[in-house]
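Internal QA ticket QA-208
Title: Verify multi-chain structure generation after dependency bump
Assignee: T.L.

Test input:
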Amino acid sequence: MMKKFITVAVLVCVAGLASAQKKKAIFVIIDGVSKDVLEKVSTPNMHAIAKEGALLSAFQGGEKGGFNQTPTISAPGYNNVITGVWFHKHNVPDNDIAAPNYHYPTIFRFFEDQYPEKKTAIFSSWEDNRTKLVGEGLAQTGNIKLDHHFDGLELDTVKYPHDRGRKFMSNIDQAVIDDAARAISQDAPDLSWVYLEYTDDMGHMYGDSEQFYDAVRAADRRVGQLWEAIKQRKEKYKEDWLIVITTDHGRDPQKGKDHGGQSDRERASWIVTNAKPLNTYAKQAQQVAVVDILPTIARFVDVKLSADQQRELDGVPLIGKVSLSNPVAIKADNKISLSWKAADTEGKVKVWLAATNNFKETGKPDNYKLIGEVPVKDGKFDIDLSRETASDFYKIVLEGKYNTVNRWIINKK
Ligand SMILES: [Zn+2]
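Actual output:
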């Protein structure tokens, strides 16, 4: 009897401890490694992380030929990840990053807005990631300020002279990782982004080659350094860590030197994560999307997204309950035929329609009208447009009990 009592008391204590566990998230972008290369080259550290969670196929590039198609270029690829929306919203089509649409907040803004006291950090082999994509210190981003950054080393040509073999970039990646591992061990930022470039440099120079594969192995060793620091934190401070690793684009199918197009190989990204358990959507999808990373991290670190924000996000969380995914909207004559894939079949789907695009233009909410409500398991619904405002543009939102997805209809004149 006494023994039983002790067991219960211990369980209660453990449960109490678990709920008090601090949540920390880190995401890593390794530049330009297509899924086939990740599978071909030995990457024991990423393999160890995937063993705790998963290695998922994921696509970059939006939908091939669709309204949200996105060039398979670096900066758009990173921005898909950090904003959770595709190019038709975030407006970064290339590495110039000339006019990002900051009405679409990055994960750092979502996080800082709700948890101003928590710590954010960027460790990056490219300064623009902080200054342009996250938009640190800009009026349009509400002057967001990260708590720590380690970047811009590529501008220091004295310490890192730019050799033709681009060995300097490997050295910069290493310095970036050394600082990230140090910061994890010492301060454990609550939300961090680590970016590594060297793999893409070797891809461009040598294509599918031993040099490129060596760079992938180096990236894996560097991820191993982060993972080691994280495991020590988990052990020592009992923190709950999420790590998500991905790539911004694949490589061309011919030689592997280039990218930017919409071939399967250029679109072939992946996600390695320790997240567990993954939800039905993540387990069943042939390919998830890199825009799924933002809502996944948001759930993990307990960022609450408003209805208006959820109506814009293009991804589906990989953890926690999900009602629906894979929305399709086809307009013919005066009808929009909608379909979706039901995950958790509990509850109904609210179908919303707007002919405005305020959010993209001004950051303000759109004028949504509730068109109908159907059980999520139905998987389809038709909108009769003869009863709605005539327009060349519609936004459709499907709001389930556990998540929300959206489609745009753009009539080309
Ligand atoms: Zn890239």
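Spot checks passed. The chain has a mean pLDDT of 95.
Status: verified.
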